[in-house]
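Sequence in, structure out.
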Amino acid sequence: MPTQQSGREFVKRDLQGEVVMLNLLRFRDVADYTAAPELAPEIPISGEEAFARYIRHTLPFLHQSGGQLMFAGAGGPFLIGPVHERWDRVMLVRQSSVAAFLAFADHPAYLAGLAHRTAAVEDSRLLPLSPVSLPDERWNV
């Protein structure tokens, strides 16, 4: 979950237009539903399966808000990066604006399934990205 400070910094960036969220996720071996026993399955499941439940719950709200899951991929060892750091899943999620992202993230029905993500994830990073122009136009996509 974001801290008050990171939330303030995000808003202060005053990102205009589309925003893409880079998600780095490390799953628990066994999902931990301690915080939401009402959502816990009858038998223990992996963090990866709990995250799949979160995604199934979340996609309709993401699409309704104008957002899109642009990419989801399996992680693995870094080619360049810390040797002991690993991320199981990497995702890019696009939203039309910061306001659309905040409305999506605060939607009560979306929040009702957020505990699947909490149960699934051991560690994560969320990095908001905005487009930049590079000095040479040939590099712009």
